[in-house]
Amino acid sequence: xxxxxxxxxxxxxxxxxxxxxxxxxxxxxxxxxxxxxxxxxxxxxxxxxxxxxxxxxxxxxxxxxxxxxxxxxxxxxxxxxxxxxxxxxxxxxxxxxxxxxxxxxxxxxxxxxxxxxxxxxxxxxxxxxxxxxxxxxxxxxxxxxxxxxxxxxxxxxxxxxxxxxxxxxxxxxxxx
Amino acid sequence: xxxxxxxxxxxxxxxxxxxxxxxxxxxxxxxxxxxxxxxxxxxxxxxxxxxxxxxxxxxxxxxxxxxxxxxxxxxxxxxxxxxxxxxxxxxxxxxxxxxxxxxxxxxxxxxxxxxxxxxxxxxxxxxxxxxxxxxxxxxxxxxxxxxxxxxxxxxxxxxxxxxxxxxxxxxxxxxx
Lengths: 176, 176
Hints:
Two copies of one chain form a homodimer. Chain A is of the alpha+beta class. In chain A, 20% of the residues lie in helices and 47% in strands. The first copy, chain A, has two domains: 3-38; 42-104 and 120-174, Nucleoside Triphosphate Pyrophosphohydrolase (Alpha-Beta Complex), CATH 3.90.79. Chain A contains three helices and ten strands, in the order E-E-E-E-E-E-E-H-E-E-E-H-H. A four-stranded mixed β-sheet of chain A has the order 7-4-9-8, sandwiched between helices. In chain A, helix 2 crosses helix 3 (161-174). The radius of gyration of chain A is 18 Å and the shape is globular. At the A-B interface, strand 1, strand 2, strand 3, strand 5 and strand 6 of A face strand 1, strand 2, strand 3, strand 5 and strand 6 of B.
């Protein structure tokens, strides 16, 4: 199975996303159009305190039109190592530096149209060490027990995809 | 917390996605640009057989540049009810009609830039009743025990975000 791009039209080069329209040939020989959002990729981190609390962030999401409760996350800068990005974003959004950062693999958020892949992490041994935040971010830190965060997933109160994926993976890993 | 759009520029009106650039005012008074992908939303379904096998689909994903193993899913048509879309996509992609369809809430896949919300379902009491597939889809059905699918998540072999979220939510709900 494969798809070959025969031709592409560049539609938009933005600050974070780039949009292209490709004409592809499918493995079965059919031709199709593929609308593509190029994205640099991102990281997302489950910060877990020794007392079992997770450190989440609450922010208004323009695309969702509402406030969402999420794990700390951010977009990779050009050439940035995902592990370093994870530490940077965690310090910017929560003021915490991880002594231990375990990789949880990652996810394609919407492989039907965007290249974005999010590297997921579990961060522990957290110590205060803040970094200044981006000026266009307005984020509130929310601490709650991991079990309470999982209950919010079950209840439909945590509905950000990366947050659902990462918290449930951490729960399985830790046997919660 | 809120963001008001002061102005928008329409960049692209595609078949599935629409791209806009907004200038917004944040709750703290700062101004920022927001690149926005408008998407009609989607459904994704965990089809569970009585013997504990889940029915997955394998397809080449152009945006990921590789084959991904996913739960059946598809984009909402204009005005389409998500429950009906779930049944339609399941019949198209797996040839199965669900006798029972339980809602699992949903997820915003990437609320930093896309409006896409995926409605998640658990489908049971499956009976053969195929619908013709879209001509630009080339999909292989893969059955495996739910426990084996969960092991593939742990091992980083299932890396599609909606699939990770939905399978782990089903595992919690069923106590697997």
